[in-house]
Amino acid sequence: MNQPAKSKKQVATSHKKQYLTFRIAHEHYGLELSQTREIIEYSGITEVPLMPSFLRGVINLRGEVVPVIDLAVRLGRKSIQVQRRTCIIVVEIQNNEQNHVLGLLADAVSEVIEIEEENIEDAPSFGAQIRADFIQGIAKQGEEFVVLLDANSALSIRELAHLVEAQLQ
Amino acid sequence: MNIDSAMQTFFAEAADLLDAMEAALLRLEDNNQDRETLNELFRAVHTIKGSAGIFGLDDIVSFTHRVENLLDMARDGKLVLESNLLSLLLPCRDHIAQLVDNAQHQRENDAECLAQGQSLLQSLSPWLPAEQKPKTKSGTKASNAVEQIAEQDAWHISVRLGPDLLRNGMDPISIIRFLGTMGTVTHITTIADHLPEFAEFDPESLYLGFEISLKTNVSQEDIEDAFMFVREEADIKIIPPRSDIQAYVNLIKSLPENPQRLGEILVKSHAITYQELEAALEVQKQQAVAQKPVHKLGNILVDNHVVAPEIIEAAVDKQKAIQERKNTPENRFIRVDADRLDKLINLIGELVINRQRIDLLVSSLAHPALAEAVTSMGSFTEQIRDAALTLRMVPIGDTFQKFKRVVRDTAKSLGKEIELVIEGAETELDRSMVEKLNDPLMHIVRNAMDHGIESVNVRRERNKPDAGRLKLAAQHDAGNIVIVISDDGGGLDTARIRKKAIANGLIDETSQLTQQELFQLIFHPGFSTAEQVTNLSGRGVGMDVVRRNIEELQGGVDIDSELGVGTSFTIRLPLTLAIIDGFHVAASGVDFIIPQNTILECVDLQSLNHIQGQHCVNLRGDQVPYIRLRDIFNLPVSQAEREKIVVVQFGEKRAGIVVDDLHGEIQTVVKPMGPIFQALKGIGGSSLLGTGAVALILDVQQLINFAIAREHTRNSVLSGNLQENDK
Fold first, then answer.
1. CA distance B699 to chain A (A)
2. For residue range B495-520, what is the model confidence (pLDDT) as tens digits?
3. pLDDT digits (tens, 9 = 90+) for A112-122
4. Average pLDDT in the B228-237 region?
5. Quick one: which H or E segment has residue A15?
6. How far is CA B716 from the centre of its chain?
7. CA distance linking residue B417 with residue B468, whole number of Å
8. Looking at this predicted complex, what is its ipTM?
9. A9 versus B526: which is more confidently predicted?
10. Distances (CA, A) of B186 to B191, B246, B263
């Protein structure tokens, strides 16, 4: 009779996930570590003409041309001002069973944290000023709240392409 | 080679052979006496049958066998392939293709499929002589012709197969069975000498060898073909009938087993007599002892009156013929996995980029010897690039060839007479483009047949020959490939296009359009979707898809048409999409690359006379409209002192692109921009500069269209405002 209870506990402890946290303005965000590939210094971005403001341009990532997204604009905030600690988080997004590589602009990268699933709360239905489907959940780290982003939705390739199309028309 | 890759080879080969078969049949429709084509047709069917036999694909073998019989008779001049018979053979070819396809996808041949095969054979039966009917692919029943061959006329085949053969899924028994279909296997001796101790015996390894005597009329090549899929690992020796003793002696010497025993086997299988063997070995031994140069055993045997000299001569000639056949071009090709080629080309792309980086570094060093070495390396890099790209080039003829059948079948179903003319079949283009070109070509060809070329009655009224003419032509033109699809049909009716465009709200009654602009309307998405009014609509995908497909390939399509005379579509495409020669320019600090093959010249903008109030300059008497990259892309105002104009040409259009700086020629590897930028017109991709920065590659055709479209909206907004004011 003990068996099921024990295994349940095991499941609970194994449901820890690692997140990469970063800062945009004064807010803290997290992305699942498994979706991030690397963090690079901000340098040499090539602007692409006529693009909406969330699309800052493209960079050369070891021979691969990668679009860079201003996450702040995407989240309805003011566009990121490039500073000394500005960096690009390289993430991989699934679309149509293909992997797409995107760069995300962030003011600063903080750390990798481990959060237990039970400590993650659902996104509030209002008040966050961020589209609800962009948020995977909210976690409390000390005194700070970390908004855990749903990368596949916040960076949906299809939606980004539609926004570009709309901008051009 | 394992069974899967052997099978894949067979399927790829069968596809080629089926194409060849179709092409040959269609050629025979024009001239049914062409012996070369007839031979080609026979060879195709024969090879499919042979290979299918090796894999035990019995349905294919039994069906192709009958077709082969018929073709064999035609080849011998006993039968003329009349057009009604050719019309039957085309579906036979399709049936074989169906059977091969089923085998490839491991589907059972269902009852319907087999019934179809039966009915096809039934319809062929009037041409097949009755006595041929009972003949099946049984190996044990030999035909009369084979039986008449004397005992010593048997081929001797010595087979030592690789130990992994069974593991690779092949079975020696199926090969022997297949040999049986060529004639009669008179003797088989299984060589089990290599069986190991029982403890070491691996049940999955093959330890057996075979000595086979085969009576047959087929050529040595055909026998070799039976071993096609195993010969890499196997040791196969084939000795023709009436071969001299030396061949057998050599065989005995070359095999690892005990010579005495092999000699006995040969004697037992009536390949040679005991006396012959003894005598030959004795003569050779004596000569070796005497330190004399060893006589050719053939000569020895001739001296001994064993073999007539003419037989040896004939055998030598035959060997030569086989040797020559192996040197013909068809054997000089190798099949390479397309992915491997793509990988190679990608790597060379990286090499090209790196070379540019080195160029930059070297130019800052002022080291002449190093610079010279780098320059010479650069020229090799260029050659490697060009050579690698040609690897992926395929002649467009294969694509055109497919349309022969389409045209033939469609013409028949429409009740029209249409003759397809192909020009420039040898023109090459990148394989990856060929695949994407199929659909647009198919659409244009179908349209031309369906709506362009008139029915015979109408053609007679118009004093045209009964048979309509459809031409597919290709040629290279300054780094592009130009494909023209033309017909001598009714042509485009601009009045009807205009009426329809007005009805669909694409233009209004007052619009003044040139003939070209009217033609281009048929590519508009809103045009072809409505009910069929013009002679160029209907049938699933619209012409807008045709244009989109071609634009995706960085190409363009123009139309030329004269009412009552005909229509021609001109498709212009770059030869490859992977690496291009570009010209590096900059506007407002943004790097752009203009494809070199579109550029006519670069001129200082200030030096030219402007046409008053317009974005247009006078270039040696010609008016050339221009666009500013800065304007069209909303770039910030720059401080450039002297703007330059790059004059480009695409198709019939000529235009200027105004930029701030010219940086010179550059080899660029095209990197796709990804799906996010799909809607961005005028930029075809991106590329890396030597500095590591990203430059944007201009798509000149799209850019000009984009500029024209923008001008139109601006003008219509303006004219709209004017109309408002009038009220």
1. 14
2. 888 888 888 777 888 878 888 888 88
3. 999 888 888 88
4. 75
5. none
6. 48
7. 6
8. 0.86
9. B526
10. 16, 22, 17
Residues A95, B350: C-beta atoms closer than 8 Å: no
Cβ atoms of residues A103 and A59 within 8 Å:
yes
Residues of A in contact with B695 (CB under 8 A): 46
Cα separation, B574 vs B556, in Å, equals: 10
Cβ separation A48–B680 shorter than 8 A: yes
Residue-wise DSSP of B106-174: T----HHHHHHHHHHHHHHGGGS-GGGTT--S-SSSPPHHHHTS-GGG-EEEEEE--TTTTTTT--HHH
Chain A positions touching B672 (Cβ under 8 A) are: 65
Instruction: Write the single-letter amino acid at B185.
Output: V
A50: closest chain B residue by CA: B633
List the single range of A127-136, B92-101, B561-570 with lowest mean pLDDT: A127-136
Whole-model pTM above 0.90?
Answer: no
> Which residue of A46, A157, A160 is in closest CB contact with B694?
A46
Contact A60 B688 (CB under 8 A): yes
| Average pLDDT score, chain B | 77
B688 neighbourhood in chain A, CB within 8 Å: 60, 63, 65
CA dist., res. B174 & res. B543, Å (int)? 53
- Report how far residue B592's alpha carbon sits from residue B584's, in angstroms, rounded to the nearest whole number: 6
**What pLDDT is stored for residue B243 in this prediction?**
66
Which string of b and e fits B648-667 if b means at least 16 CB within 10 Å? Answer: bebbebbbbbbbbbeeeebb
- Say which of A46, A49, A157 has its CB closest to residue B676: A157
* pLDDT for the residue B533: 37
Q: How confident is the model at residue B485 (pLDDT cuts 50, 70, 90)?
A: very high
% residues pLDDT > 90 (chain B): 8
